[in-house]
Fold each of these.
Amino acid sequence: MHTISKEVLIRKYVESLEDRCASAFIGAGLSYDASGLDWNGLVKPYIQQLEENTDDPILGLQYFVTQKNIDKIELKKEIAQKFSNLKYDYRHIILSKLPIRNYWTTNFDALIEDALTDTHESRDIMNSNDSFISAAERRDNIVYKLHGDINSPESIVILKDDYYAYNKTHNHFVTALKNEFATNTMLFLGYALGDPDILNILNELNLDSDTKVTHYMVLKKSQQAKKQQYWIDELHKEGIITCLIDEYDEVEEILQGIYQLYMARKVFVSGSSCGEYGKFTADEAHRIFYNLGYRLINEFKDQDVSIVSGYGLGVGPSLVEGAAEAVATNNLDFGKRVLIYPFPKMYYSIPSEERTPELEEHFKNYRSKMIDKCGVAFFLFGNKKDKNGNIVIADGLIKEFEIAHKQGKYVFPIGSTGWAAEVLADKVLANYSSYNNTSKEVEQLFLELNLPEITGDQIVDKIIQIIDLLAYRVCDSDS
């Protein structure tokens, strides 16, 4: 059949992300919700003005220009205007946050570029042959606009004449895309059966599956089942395996699955203590954090697991010291494995009831930025002293939990460590599925993390098992 399931696609693509060899190829389907235009909707108003219609939208548009003696640049400006001032959606946000090597698109709009701009500090656009020459030596988050860009209407490829001349006018694109197919795994999104954009591109490339690199296309099932199967077979010859879906909404589901699985390798550890550790001694508590930091790095040294931490009061240094020991032992890059967001002393020095709304908003954004870097969050202890010296629940831990849950992260408060973590654990235990969509095995480990008799070493063991299950041993949530 030359097809693949959603679950297998997600796992395979995440493996490519981890190996830093994943690229994305974005079609008109990902712009439809924003623009309301597909190929037919775009060209129909023009083709209807012809004396005789044609089933080929590109040829029909060419006939329109020729018969009506239309200035093709003016036509392209008019078409570009239809795609201006659009707003990207959640699918573009996910794509912009993943470590995708390069973004390729036949779309004229700027949706993926805008999402990248809001997610990253820099991005580079290649929208013409000349842009290959003028591009900076260091290029980040490259978007290749194979068929031009609304900000340069003359670059738009939409007429038959444009396609006929493509190999000459866009030879750098053809060469670069051939290299991309030979070295990186491409995920095609937003294309439909017989889409003229992708058909023309693939014809120009003249690819074959001997490149030994597998690519994937997400395609909605067509009522023309036999015709679609022929196309799927042809795609397979070019090294592209198809994932069939019933509804377009499943594209977001696939992207969310990819994002969750990849981000499960990014572990946020939230914890704070003013010196009170409940049933644990201070040495035992610090040992939990040290061992956790060490084992998260050491036991996943050959994978892409990393730690995110706010360097929590009283416990953060132990976590980082353990991670640093594992990094040094295994000759790894500390900067790639440990991401620290320390809070300044002035924040802790001001009692929570005396902090201004502006200060709270500032550090809410700081926390959101930090937690956005992770996919799984664990919460331990969580106490502090108020202005009278009384030990109270740390509101910071609760704020971080709320942000993580709102962002759709897996959240695991460890109630056996007491304080804020216990309060949060009670909430999750009361309605686990509303917080975490995981396998029963992961849920059971979470239950065990909250048993009162659990030891510090067992806490670390079960956290490691949860990460292993979420990131590397995926199973259905109802299994």
Amino acid sequence: MQNKVITPAVFSFLKKLEKNNNRDWFTGNKKEFKSLETEMKSFFNDLGEEVKIHDEVERVKVFRIYRDVRFSKNKTPYKINFSSSLSRAGAKLRGGYYTHVQPNNASFIAAGFWQPNKEDLFRIRKELELDASEFREVIRNKKFKSVWGELVGDEVKTAPKGFDKAHENIDLIKKKQFIFTRNFTDKEVLAPGFLKEVSNSFKAIRPYFDLMSDVLTTNLNGESLLD
């Protein structure tokens, strides 16, 4: 397949939108927005097809530019980015991919478990309580870290209810999110190879996803929950 590229016009429009984040300006520039939105949807769909070469992707979701301001202190009506998520397919595959395109070197990709439900979160924590050696081995791998760096995400202050705050793996157990991110400059995003670079980065997260999928589809005795 011929990889799509992101054009400079995308960043140019988003920069103007940041300075004119109001409905009147947006309405007057709606035609340009719709053209760029089509371009970005095509890029995100192409990315989904590229990732399908090395993973099972169930759905490509392109997020709308309209902000939900009901519960936000920031009342500007529009996002200043284009973004998309890829959901892995089926109950046996867990985790997801996220791509965020924003000017001024604010673009990034992410992969992992952003808001795991309470059952999944408890299962992950119990696994880490039992033995975190394989988990640490995967995330400390030099090749893995060269792409994704360190595990990030929100965490509780001391320990989740029912867990020992002095446990040797409490640094992992207290996390509420289990995600990795990688940042990109504007120059990197506009480069011809950006789509391929993102896809390759997502491919590099597979050892982590494979481990977590195994954890989340078995009980603590290693017995499958999918039967």
Amino acid sequence: MYALVEIKGKQYKAEEGKKILVDLLHMEEGESFETDKVLAVVDGDAAKFGTPYVEGAKVEATVGPVKKGEKVKVYKFHRRKGYRRTQGHREKYQEITFSKVQG
């Protein structure tokens, strides 16, 4: 059984015991996280799809540590002007572990 869940505007596949990285939630490590923004629930051959969300379905997860993504380099350049700028950053993500999928 799995569900398609919306977390901070992005969609993820939620299965019990699965760990994923989501955008930073600003929650402490070990806190419980629950969402009812479930777009679809699939259990074998049976599938329920919401318009936009499935009624009565929810997903519970546990918040894990904060991790950084890969470095992104931003390079700006104007030809013949001597203008060159390099900037970089690393996006922060939070690991969550799905503990329960109800549908």
